[in-house]
Amino acid sequence: MRLAGAFKGSILSAAVLAALTGIPGAPTSLGGAPVAVAEEAPDHGRQMIVRADDVGASKIYNEGVFEAVDNGVVTWVDIMLDSPGTIDALIKLKERPWISVGWHAHMWGSPVLPAAEVPSLVVPEGEEYAGRFREDIQTAPDVKFEEALAELRAQMELSIQYLGHPPTFGSPGLGMPMQGPVEPTPFLRAKQQVIDEYHLIDGWYNNMGKVEAEPKWADKKAWYTNMLPSVKDFYQTDSVADWEENYSPVNYYTEDRGGMLKLMDEGWTPIRAFHPGYLDLWTYRRMERGDRTMSRRFSLIRLLDLEGLTSNELKDWIRENRIALVSPKDLLFGRNAYQDHLKAVGSDLYIERDD
C-alpha cells in the first residue's frame, strides 16, 4: 500500500512537468496496486539502462561519476541532495540533459535547512557528527513529520535552483509504496508526500521479479537486475586482491551473469546500478560514519565500477550484441535523447533503429 497521509496536490505547473518528461501532459499520479507485467514485448531491439548511484557524495567522487557519464555507458544517475558534492553534481547534470536523474535519498549527509530548524532530524550538538542526519532517521518514531517535510521540500527546491527541475525519479526502495502491515514512520510519510508533491516517478520497473511495476508502467517492461551475480561473495574487506579476483562489472555483462540477454530478447529493458567514482576521505570513511562494514563494501568497488563502465571490453560487448543504451525517460516517454547524444558526438555506441 502507499504510505499513509500522502498529499496528492500539485505544486508544479504543467509546463514544468512537460519539461521533466519531454512530453506534454506528463503524469501526475502513480497510484494503483501492482499487477502482472504485459505479456507482449515492446517493439524495440535490445536496449538497457545503466545507473550510477551516490552521485553528489563529494566533488572528488563526482569526478569519477562524470568520467563514467562522459566516457562510459551511464544513462541515469541517482543524486544525493544532502552531501558535500550535491551542488557540483547538479550543475554538471544541467549541462547533460540526456542523462536521467533520480533521487538517492539515503540521508547520509547534512540538512539543506539550518540544523536548528530541524532538530529532530540531526545528531545533537556535543555529539560526534553533530548537525548531520541521525543514522536512524528513516525508522525513528520521534522524528517530527513537519521538520522532515520541510527539509525534503528544501532538497527538491535545491535541485530546481541548480538543475532546473526536481529529480525525475524517486529513489528505489526509499519512499516507495510499503509492503505489509508495518506502520510508516514520520520520515517515510514525509518522503512519500514530497514524492507525490513534486511528481517524482516510482514503481515503474519490475524489481528483480519480486515487486512488479505499477499498472501504468507495466507495458514498458523495465526490469531491475540483481548485483549479486557479479561477485562470488559480497566481500566486506579492504583487500584489493579479494575485490579484483571476485568482483567484475564487465563480466557481469560479458558472461551474462544477470541473464540480461535473455531479458532483452524477451522484450525487457534491464537496469543495473553501479557506484563509479573516485575515493576521498568523505566517500571512503566519513559518509558511512562508524559503519566500517558498509565502508569496506563500497570503497574499492567504486574504482572497479569506474574502470569497468568506461572499459573497451564492455563497449565491445554492447556493440557486438547490438544493444542500445537508453535512459529511463527515453524508455517511459518515447524519447531518444541518449542515443541522439551519442550520434551527435560521433560515438560508435550509437544504434540506428528503424522507426
UniProtKB/TrEMBL annotation:
Q: Which GO terms describe its molecular function?
A: deacetylase activity; hydrolase activity; metal ion binding
Q: Which GO terms describe its biological process?
A: carbohydrate metabolic process
> Can you name the source organism?
Croceicoccus mobilis
Domain of life, source organism: Bacteria
The cofactor named in the record is: Mg(2+)
UniProt-listed Pfam families: YdjC
Q: Where is the signal peptide?
A: 1-18
- This one is known as PTS cellbiose transporter subunit IIC
| Database matches in InterPro entries | Glyco_hydro/deAcase_b/a-brl, YdjC-like
Keywords carried by this UniProt record: Carbohydrate metabolism, Hydrolase, Magnesium, Metal-binding, Signal
